[in-house]
Amino acid sequence: MNPGIASNMQTHYQRIGGETQVRRLVDHFYDHMDELPEAWGIRKLHAQDLSGSRQKLFEFLTGWMGGPQLYVEKHGHPMLRARHLPFPIGDEERDQWLMCMRLALDEVVPDEALRAELYAAFVKVGDHMRNRAPMHGLRG
User: Fold this and answer.
1) Where are the chain's structural domains?
2) Which fold has domain 12-129?
3) pLDDT reading at 92 higher than 90
4) Average pLDDT estimate for 43-56
């Protein structure tokens, strides 16, 4: 789902405040991922230096929210699931990613309705990215 067009005909990119606010969202998101022990599962799937990940997520979210298609112009179609197949993503990783995004949204997006719309869209993306079967409480 591309949440770019909202019912009031403004894109989420416009509603969030454009480039500066998308960058802030990405920075807060990766700061949480890097600092919170409970995000270690998702953090360890990333490179030690998060600058490349920050830039790619900024470019992707800019277009995904209805702004300039920076990611597509540089890297082609996002093919999110295919690009993430090398990384084991299950419920725990999805939940950790969403936790970091929820915290970032709460800090960066004052508009409660916009926050809820974006989070709902992120949940759908997170669900789509899973490529590992649930463990159903079994630990090896």
Assistant:
1) 12-129
2) Globin-like (1.10.490)
3) yes
4) 95
Residue type for 60, please? F
pTM summary value: 0.86
Give yes or no for residue 60 having a pLDDT over 90.
yes
Rounding to the nearest 10 degrees, give the CA dihedral for residues 75, 130, 48, 109: 80
SS (H, E, C) the chain: CCCCECCCCCEHHHHHCCHHHHHHHHHHHHHHHHHCHHHHHHHCCCCCCCHHHHHHHHHHHHHHCCCCCHHHHHHCCCCHHHHHCCCCCCHHHHHHHHHHHHHHHHHHCCCHHHHHHHHHHHHHHHHHHCCCCCCCCCCC
Phi then psi for 51, rounded to 5 degrees?
Answer: -60, -40
Report the half-sphere exposure of 53 (CA within 13 A, side-chain side): 19
pLDDT at residue 4, as a whole number: 53
pLDDT computed for residue 84 by the predictor: 73
Q: Is the pLDDT of residue 140 over 70?
A: no
Say how far apart CA 11 and CA 5 lie, in whole Å: 5
Using only C-alpha atoms, the chain has a radius of gyration, in whole angstroms, of 15
